[in-house]
Amino acid sequence: MALALSPLVLGLGGCATEPTPLQENVTYATEWIGDEPVIGRTQVTLVLADGRAYGNGGCNHWFGSYVRDGEQLRFSELGSTRRACNEAIMAQENHFLETLGRVQRWDISNLDQLRLWPDQGAPMRLWPADE
C-alpha cells in the first residue's frame, strides 16, 4: 500500500510553491489604500532600496526610511515635496502617507499582491508596476 501511495505523495510535493518575496528596487503601484481604491489612473508608488523608501504619492514625490525584520516592516521619517494638486488627490496622498506611517507588517497574498498591514484596518494593496 505504501508503494502505491508514493507516486501520489511525490506528485503532490510539486504543487507547493515558494511565496513571492518582498523585493527591493522594484516599483510597486498601489491599488488600494485600506478600504479605498486609488483614484482613477493616479500613480501612487512605493520603492524600497537599502533602508530608503520613496515613490510618488499621486501629486508629490515622497521619501522616508524603513526597517524590515522578517514579516515586520516599519516606515519612519516620511516626507514629501510640496506641490499642490486637486483636493481629492491631495487627500488621497495624505491618507497614503498616514497609512504608510502606521504599517506594522507585510505579506504577499495568494494572488502575489503585496499587502502592507497598518496597526488597524485593511491593508494597503500593491502590485509590481509595469515598467
UniProtKB/TrEMBL annotation:
It holds the Pfam family META. It comes from the Bacteria. Residues 25-122 form the DUF306 domain. This is META domain-containing protein. The lineage of its organism: Bacteria, Pseudomonadati, Pseudomonadota, Gammaproteobacteria, Pseudomonadales.
